[in-house]
Amino acid sequence: MKGEIINVGTEILIGDILNTNAQYISKELSSAGVSVFFQTTVGDNPDRLMSVLKESVERSDLIILTGGLGPTQDDLTKETVARLLGLDMDMHTESYDKMMSFFHKISSKMTQNNLKQAYMPVGAHIIPNENGTAPGVLIEHEGKVIIMLPGPPRELVPMFRDFVMVYLQGKSQDKFFSNYYKVSGIGESALEDMLIDIIDNQTNPTIATYAKPDEVLLRVTANAKSEDEAKLLLDKTDKIIVDRLKDNLFAREDISLNGLVAKLLIDTSTTISLAESCTGGLITSRLTETAGISKCLHSSIICYSNDSKIQYLGVRKSTLEKYGAVSRECAEEMLKGLIKNNNTDMAVATTGIAGPTGGTEDKPVGLVYVGIAYKGNIHVEEHNISGTRHRVQLKSANIALNLIRKQLIGL
Amino acid sequence: MKGEIINVGTEILIGDILNTNAQYISKELSSAGVSVFFQTTVGDNPDRLMSVLKESVERSDLIILTGGLGPTQDDLTKETVARLLGLDMDMHTESYDKMMSFFHKISSKMTQNNLKQAYMPVGAHIIPNENGTAPGVLIEHEGKVIIMLPGPPRELVPMFRDFVMVYLQGKSQDKFFSNYYKVSGIGESALEDMLIDIIDNQTNPTIATYAKPDEVLLRVTANAKSEDEAKLLLDKTDKIIVDRLKDNLFAREDISLNGLVAKLLIDTSTTISLAESCTGGLITSRLTETAGISKCLHSSIICYSNDSKIQYLGVRKSTLEKYGAVSRECAEEMLKGLIKNNNTDMAVATTGIAGPTGGTEDKPVGLVYVGIAYKGNIHVEEHNISGTRHRVQLKSANIALNLIRKQLIGL
User: Fold this and answer.
1) Which of A170-184, A247-261, A336-350 has the lowest mean pLDDT?
2) Overall pTM surpassing 0.95 (yes/no)
3) Residue A170 CB: number of other CB atoms within 10 A?
4) N or C: which end of chain A has fewer CB within 10 A?
C-alpha cells in the first residue's frame, strides 16, 4: 500500500515547531506495511493545500493529513478535502454534543467558531479525540483512504494508535519483519561496499543503512504473510552478513556501543577503572549514561597533565622523558598503575594527540594508543585517526569501548 | 523570494530519523526574508525525486535539497538535479584532491564509490564541507537557485550558516543583522514566556529561539538597509532582554557553555582540577572538546566508588559513613583533596544521585551537590534536579560550568 503524509501548518514552514508527527506517523505506517513515499508540509493556504492534495490522491492509496482541523478561520483541511472530493459538509450531531458537554465541563461558553469543528464531510467516519475538541476524520473514496488528524501530538498520537493503526491492520495481509545489525569501526560507505552485491540485488528482504556518529545501523526487512515465512527470507542473508561484518558487528539490535558495553560489564559483574588522557573523560561519561554502572565502575583518572600521570598512575618520569606521554610505553604504565591502585578486573587507558595542534612529524595529530588490561594480559593498540579533534576523541573512545566488548565476550 | 525545501532520504520516510534539518533551514530562510511554501521529504528514488524537483523548480525561486550526496548507490541527488537541468557531470579536481588527501591521511584505501562525491554538475559552485567528505553544490539556472547540502546536521548546519546565508544576504538588498543571546539554566518555553510580549509584537526585529540540550540560543534579527539602521532597531529590544535574562545569559554569541568556560580558563591561564562523581566525566569531557585546554586542565578524578573518593581525594571514611557520599561534607572534602593534591588555581567537585534508582526519602534522585574552590574560598551548592538520569547529569554539569564561569568573570 502506497501512503503519504501531508502536514498542514504555517508554523512548521517558518520553523517555529519541529515536525515530530511526520516521524511518528512514518514509523507507524512502515511497521504496518505501508510504504510512505512522500511527506509534505504546506501552510494554511487552501490553494497550495489543494494542489498538494490533488497530486497525493493521484499517486497514493493512503493520505494522512495532520493539522488544520481547529476552530479558526485558517483551519481549512476538512473543507479543502471535501471540495476536492465533491462532498458536502454537514453537522455531525455526536461531535456537536460532545463539544457542548466539553465546554459545559470546563464551564466556559462555546464561541461560534468552535461550531466549525462539528461540521464533517458527508459519509466520513469520525475519529473521536479524547484530548481536544477537534475530532479526526476518515474518508474512503474511490479506493483511496484519506485520514485527517489534529496537529497537537498529544491529541494525534492516541488517535493514531487506537484508531488508525487498528483500521490499517484490519486492511493489510502483509506483515513486515526486520533483522538489525549494529556496526562500529567501519563507515557507512565501506559497509555498503562490503555488502554491495546483496544491496544491488535486494528485493525482499530489503537492506538499509543508517549512520550515527561512528556507528552504523543495518536494517534488513522482509515482507511476508507470516513470521515463519519472513524468517526464512531473513535467514538467507543473515549468514552472509554476519560472516562479512566479523568483529565490526557488535549487536543484533539498535543499541549504542557504550550502552552495550555498560550492559556487558553489569551483567558479568566486571569491575573496571580507566585512565583517559586524549579522550578527556568521554569513555567514562558514556559508560555512566547507563544506570547501574556504579556497581562496576571504580574510578577513572582523566590524567591530562604529565604530573597527573605520574601522581595518580605512577607513570615514571623517565618514561615520559624518553618516550613521551603519547607512547605505547606510557599507555602500558598507565594500565599497570590502574591495576596496582584499584584492583579492578579490567583497566583501560588512552593517550594520544587529539589536535588540531600539538602534532609532530613522527607523532602526528590523530596518533592514539588505546590499551586494556584484563585477566593478567596487557594489550595496547596504536591507531592513526584522521579528522577533527571531535572525531579523534570519538573514534578513540569507540576503539576503547570495542576492546572492552571483545574482551568481555572472549573475542 | 519563494523558497522550498526538499529532504532526500528513505530513512526519514520510514521514521528512523527526525527531520530537524527542515526546521533549521525554514527558520534560517524566514529570518533571511525567504517565504518557505513547501517542505517535501522524498526517498532515495530518482523518479520520485525527479517528479518533486520538476514541480519545485516551476513554483519556487530557491530550492534547498538535503541528503543524497554521499558515496553510496542510492545517493542520487546531484545526478537527478543535473538530469533535470540538462547539465553534464564532471570530475571536480579540488574536491577529488581533498578527498584523496583525506583518505591518504587516514592511510586507508579510498573505495571506488567515494569517487562519486567528487563528480559535480558542470558550472556548479562547490560548497566546502569541513566536517565530512561530501561537498555541497549551488547551481544558478534560469533565474532559479538550487542548493544541495549533505544530510547530517553537523555537516549541514555550518555549511548553511557560513555559505548559504552569506550567499542569500548578498542577493537581497535588505541586509539582516542579528543579536545573539546564549542562555543556560532555563528552558525554551520558559524563555519564550519571559519574552512573550516582545515575541508577540515582533515585526522588525524578529525573534527566534533555538534549543540545544539545556542551552537556548536567542536570536534577534533586524532587517534594514544599513548596519546603523539595524543597530537602532536591535538596541530597543536589547536592554529589555538583557534585564530579563539576568544570570541565565552567559554569552552574546552562539557559543556553547563548555566552549565559553574552556575559553575563559585558557584566556586567564587558570589551572583547574575536577572530581566528578554523579556527572561521570561529563564536565571534563566537555571542557576537553576545546583545543588548548591541556594548558589549564591538570586532571579530573571520576570517583564513582567510595573507595576512590578516599583513595584519590582523601575523603574521610567517617565522613562517608556519617553523611554519605552525596552530602555537602563529602563535596567539601573532595574539593580540599583536589587542592591539596593538585595545587591548581581552581577545583570543582560534583556528587549526587543521578538515578533512576538509588534515591531515598531524605536523599531523592536528583539531589546533587556542586562545589567550587577558588582563591581560598570554598562554595558548595545543593540542587534538586528533576527528570531522567541523562537530564540530572547534564544539568549538574551545566551548573558546575556556570559556577566556573561566574568565578572567572567575578560574578
Assistant:
1) A170-184
2) no
3) 7
4) C
